[in-house]
Amino acid sequence: MLELREVDVAVGKRKILSNINMVVKPRELHVVLGPNGSGKTSLLNAVMGIKPYEVIKGSIIFEGSDITQEPPHVKARKGVVVAYQIPPPIKGLVAGRFAEELMRRFNVESSYAEVLSEVLEVRDLLSKYLFDKMSGGEKKRLETFLTLLTKPKVALLDEPDSGVDVESLNRMSEALKVALSKGTSMVLVTHSLHMLRLLRDHITSVHVLYGGTVVHSGLYDEVVPSIERYGFSGALTQLARMG
Amino acid sequence: MDRETLLKALNKPSPYGPDVDLSRFNVGLAGEGVLEEGEVDKISSRLGLGSGLLRKADYLQVNESVLSKFMREKLTERGAVVLPTSEALKKLDWVREYSWRLVKPDTDKYTAATKLYGNELGFFIYVPPGIKIKDPIYTCLFITRKEYAQLLHNIVVVDDGAELNLVTGCGVPDQPLGSLHVGISEYYVGRGSKLTYTMIHAWAPDMVVRPRTVVKVGEGGEYVSYYVIYSSVESLQTYPKVYLGEGAKATLNSIVVGDGKSVYDVGSAIVLEGKDSAGEILSRNLGRGSSLIYARSRIEGRAGPSRGHIECLGLIEGDNAIIESLPEISSSSPEAVLTHEAAIGKISEDLISYLLSKGFSEEEARAAIVKGFLNIEEPKLPQQVREVIKRTIEYIASKAVG
Question: pTM of the predicted model, to two decimals?
Answer without folding.
Answer: 0.84
